[in-house]
Amino acid sequence: MLSILVGLVMLMGLAYLGWSIIWVAPLAAGVVAVLSGLDVFETYTGPYMEGLVGFAKSWFPIFLLGAVFGKLMEETGAAKSVAKKITQLIGKNRAVLGVLIAAAVLTYGGVSLFVVVFAIYPIALELFREANISRKLLVPTFALGAFTFTMTSVPGTPQIQNLIPMEHFGTTPMAGPVIGIVTTLIMAVGGYLWLAYRAKKLSAKGDVFTEPKNQEDTEETRDENIPNWFLSLLPLLIVVVLLNVMKLEALWSLLFGVLSIMILNVKNYKQFIPSINDGSKGSVMAIFNTSAAVGFGAVIAIVPAFEDITSWLLNISDNPLVAEGLAVQVMAIITGSASGGMGIALSTLGDTFVELSQTTGISPEVFHRIAAVASGASIFPNNGALLTLVSVTGLSLRTTYKDVFVVAFIIPSIALIVGVIMGAFGLV
């Protein structure tokens, strides 16, 4: 148990300091191996690399098309057009709500979490400037809009955290719609109320908007050369409809989404090849970050104490949903990745949960939705997406993590508890 705790603290601590998870993860895995009496070389070339390669093998096509789709949305100006229209409708005095909705819409449309940050940041910065709101709230606002409910709980979301449970439980992206809607409302409304409260509190203390040090990143967003907002919204709708209404595979849905962007923005055809190239490169880095974390989780899984942890999780309650929720959440925290942690938990315990679904009469859809919601209730300082967000905004975890902790961990955990209770009472 000590080896697991030391490895986890090391992973989170170094990530908190800004060190890359790509080499921190194998380093922490090596420490776990030494403290557990395992052969370091065999552990690294065996379980660690098997976990890393296994995750990449299963999910690289989704990461690739998702990144290309997002990059095309960004480079053609489609993502910025949708985001700007939403913020215009909401009003500049509601900067937090505008950024929140814009991030949520793009994420639910299938745009990569990382691309959402880059696409909306210039507009978000301008809105916060005009509303005179502290930039400290940029990170938690993005985290709430892109890393929580649209990633895990909204029925039909094409994000990978909602797709992984399908292969284990034989479900669809719309699994557990009632639980999904309720947990979405808890996270969205609860998180927004907290951020609105914090904005007023910070303003009362005189903590208002300050210009970023890098002035090149603060130029006012221009409207020139961005496409019509409705046409820009169509590719997002196509992905969601094909995935959930037509029941196409995620790969086909994303592929048609990519083609629709190119057709609707054919006049910008010169941007296509560079965008596809950049998206492809970005997908490699994104999946390698996640896979590196999964490799660390795979090493944790072979430590003798891990059996004690899984046994404890499975027996902590007569309700198997509690065990599943905790297993996914704990592994997501350990790996610093919602998708990576879920992958480890379900690959290790997925068959057990399927059997429990059959013996207890709890619908597989409930297990699907609880696993997804639990995966997102895990945003700790070692989370890869959070570290990227902090880097883009030019802020630090020390000044922003308090609010991130509330909107991306505490409130989602409350939503998870409510979802488990609903599932226990037979609600789907």
Descriptive notes:
By secondary structure, the protein is an all-alpha fold. It has 19 helices and no strands. Helices cover 77% and strands 0% of the residues. Helix 2 runs antiparallel to helix 3, helix 2 packs parallel to helix 13 and helix 3 runs parallel beside helix 12. The protein starts with a helix and ends with a helix.
The largest sheet, given as strand count, sense and whether it forms a barrel, is: none
Order of H and E elements: HHHHHHHHHHHHHHHHHHH
Distance between the first and last residues' Cα: 36 Å
Structural class: mainly alpha
Contiguous runs where pLDDT drops below 50 for at least 5 residues = 215-222
State the helix count.
Answer: 19
Query: Helix content range of the residues, please?
Result: over 70%
> What would you call the shape?
globular
